[in-house]
Amino acid sequence: MSGWAPGGALVSTIEVTATTVQRGDVIQLGGRACRVTDLFQLPQGAKQLFFESGELLTIHTRTRLTAVRVLRRR
């Protein structure tokens, strides 16, 4: 699903994994929207995500999450 966000940016709802997650993705966790500000590669393909709120989340290679991603204009 794609749509326009306030300010004219194009956003898309996507499924992310440890391989595809990016900085700036907004992931809904426990009813709260959390924006990924940094991420680090861990052994065996896992990643540790850092959110704007200061919270951490470690995801396994098979973890699937739904995220909103702002698409950049070219």
**Number of helical regions:** 0
Structural class: mainly beta
Note the run of SSEs as H and E.
EEEEEEE
What coarse outline follows from CA principal-axis ratios? Answer: globular
The largest sheet is: 7 strands, antiparallel
Helix content: under 10%
Instruction: State the total count of DSSP E strands.
Output: 7
Structural commentary:
This protein has strands spanning 2-4, 10-16, 26-29, 32-41, 47-51, 56-59, 65-71. It is mainly β and 74 residues long. It has a 7-stranded antiparallel β-sheet with strand order 1-2-7-3-4-5-6, with no helix packed on it. Strand 3 (26-29) and strand 4 form a beta hairpin. The two termini are 20 Å apart.
Which key features would you list for this structure?
54% strand, 74 residues, globular, mainly beta, single chain, seven-stranded antiparallel beta sheet, 0% helix
In short:
With 74 residues, the chain is mainly β.
What secondary-structure arrangement, pairings included, does this model have?
Elements: E1 2-4, E2 10-16, E3 26-29, E4 32-41, E5 47-51, E6 56-59, E7 65-71
